[in-house]
């Protein structure tokens, strides 16, 4: 007769539950995986499948009851790690979407907005188009597989532990968020530059021929020039987008390492009052 103790059952539950929480956190926050068009059952099923694959290779887990207060804190910490890794990739897509927003406003398409179910807000037509292009590029370079590889690697760089996380990783994530503005402006520069030249030309034309209706011809021209520039610049967006994806995945990979190094540094502190012995000298 096979008998199971409560400690054994808790160990088995924790061995699957804690890795599953980190995986589901990344799936919920990362683009493509966390898209609202994907059913929740598919997301949970993918997370359980990945957890079953990863769980046997996860380093030793803390001997804590998963239903105790300490176990729930570990659960919340694992969820936070997964969300942070997925959010670092979401920032890359936010930068692309901001480039579309800047291009739309410059072209005069600021009124052409739609409801975006992912952000639960309004998004311009150009922004959604560039987001779809970025999604296709994300799949084309297999960045989703590299992201899952970084997730599996995080269980070795930051094992499941009861030690709390410290602020170094969160500061890195906040600093990484600055690319939303810098990269968004850089990606939209071709559209902005072309339309700036177009508007200057229209201004000169209006001064030369005041009888022309600027509002009648200006909007079609700026719209046409903007769409033409987008069509011409699309082939050249592959390299910067690929670099963005790789940098975002590298940031997601560095977050667990930063937290792990910080935990190790605090675990073994060195006091400045401790006398330092020369090498080779024994106490």
TrEMBL record:
It holds the Pfam family Bac_export_1. GO terms for cellular component: bacterial-type flagellum basal body; plasma membrane. Keywords: Bacterial flagellum, Cell membrane, Cell projection, Cilium, Flagellum, Membrane, Transmembrane, Transmembrane helix. It is found in: Cell membrane; Bacterial flagellum basal body. Coiled coil: none annotated. Residues 263-274 have a biased composition (Polar residues). The chain crosses the membrane at residues 12-33, 40-61, 67-89, 129-152, 179-202, 214-238. Belongs to the FliR/MopE/SpaR family. Role in flagellar biosynthesis. This is Flagellar biosynthetic protein FliR. It comes from Rugamonas apoptosis. The lineage of its organism: Bacteria, Pseudomonadati, Pseudomonadota, Betaproteobacteria, Burkholderiales. The gene is fliR.
């Amino acid at each position: 007769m096979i008998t199971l103790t409560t400690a054994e059952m808790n160990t088995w539950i924790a061995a699957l539950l804690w890795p599953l929480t980190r995986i589901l956190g990344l799936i919920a926050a990362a683009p493509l995986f966390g898209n609202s068009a994907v059913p929740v059952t598919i997301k949970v099923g993918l997370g359980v499948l990945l957890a079953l694959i990863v769980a046997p290779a996860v380093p030793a887990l803390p001997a804590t009851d998963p239903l105790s207060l300490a176990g729930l804190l570990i659960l919340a910490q694992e969820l936070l790690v997964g969300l942070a890794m997925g959010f670092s990739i979401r920032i890359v897509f936010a930068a692309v979407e901001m480039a579309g927003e800047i291009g739309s406003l410059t072209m005069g398409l600021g009124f052409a907005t739609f409801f975006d179910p992912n952000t639960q807000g309004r998004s311009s037509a150009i922004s959604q188009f560039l987001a779809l292009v970025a999604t296709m590029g994300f799949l084309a370079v297999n960045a989703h597989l590299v992201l899952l590889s970084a997730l599996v690697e995080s269980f070795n760089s930051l094992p499941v532990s009861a030690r709390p996380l410290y602020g170094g990783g969160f500061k890195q994530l906040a600093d990484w968020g600055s690319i939303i503005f810098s990269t968004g402006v850089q990606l939209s520069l071709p559209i902005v530059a072309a339309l700036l030249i177009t508007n200057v030309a229209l201004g000169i034309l209006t001064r030369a021929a005041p009888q022309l209706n600027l509002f009648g011809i200006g909007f079609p021209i700026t719209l046409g020039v903007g769409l033409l520039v987008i069509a011409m610049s699309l082939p050249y967006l592959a390299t910067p987008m690929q670099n963005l994806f790789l940098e975002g995945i590298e940031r997601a990979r560095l977050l667990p390492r930063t937290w792990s190094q910080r935990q190790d540094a605090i675990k073994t502190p060195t006091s400045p009052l401790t006398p330092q012995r020369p090498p080779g000298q024994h106490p």
